[in-house]
Amino acid sequence: MTVLLASMKNFIANWRRDAGRKKRGGDVDVVSLDMNDAEQILAGEITSSEGPDSLFNRTWANQLLNLARERVRGAWVKAGHTDRFEALRGCLDDPGETPDYPGLSERLRLSESGVRTAVARLREQFRKFYREEVARVVAGPEEVDDEIPALIGSF
């Protein structure tokens, strides 16, 4: 009986300790801040010849592009077209460059017109998501058309 009572007391004590730990934020994953990596990244940005304003604008524009690209990727993955997205993602990087439609056609086992349609849809979806990301950071929807050229000009 004494062993059972001692076991029960230990169980309750552990339970109370764990409940208190969770209450104080102890149930959170610890994220290590590696200051060496952060300093190297910042040092690379600081040594550039551009001023802090243009550096900020370029970084911000890149962040918006990456957010839109990730949203497009998520939509294609959700639709079950991960391989197709991975094959066509280069078409988002340089929209002025003509994609290798015959090579993509062979790789994706689609007709060339099917690849052209897929690239057009990919780019249209990217433009839509990019406009939505820009709209989230400007004061109103009427400012989106003015902000996009300013963002592109920061490159």
The number of distinct β-strands equals 0
Low-confidence stretches: none
Overall geometry comes to elongated
Strand content bin: under 5%
Instruction: Give the averaged pLDDT, no decimals.
Output: 80
Number of H/I helices: 8
Largest sheet: none
Strand/helix succession = HHHHHHHH
Helix fraction bin: over 70%
End-to-end span in angstroms? 76 Å
Whole-number radius of gyration?
Answer: 26 Å
Based on secondary structure, the structural category is mainly alpha
What brief labels describe this structure?
155 residues; 8 helices; elongated
Give a structural overview.
This protein has helices spanning 2-23, 35-46, 52-78, 82-88, 90-93, 101-108, 112-137, 144-153. The longest helix is centred in the middle third of the chain and has 27 residues, at 52-78. Helix 3 (52-78) runs antiparallel to helix 4 (82-88) and helix 3 (52-78) packs across helix 7. The N and C termini lie far apart (76 Å). It has a domain at 51-153. Helices cover 75% and strands 0% of the residues. It is an all-alpha fold. It is built from eight helices and no strands.
List strands and helices in order, with pairings.
Layout (H helix, E strand, L loop, with lengths): L1 H22 L11 H12 L5 H27 L3 H7 L1 H4 L7 H8 L3 H26 L6 H10 L2
Helix pairs in contact: 3-4, 3-7, 6-7
What's the short story on this structure?
This protein has helices at 2-23, 35-46, 52-78, 82-88, 90-93, 101-108, 112-137, 144-153. The chain is mainly alpha-helical.
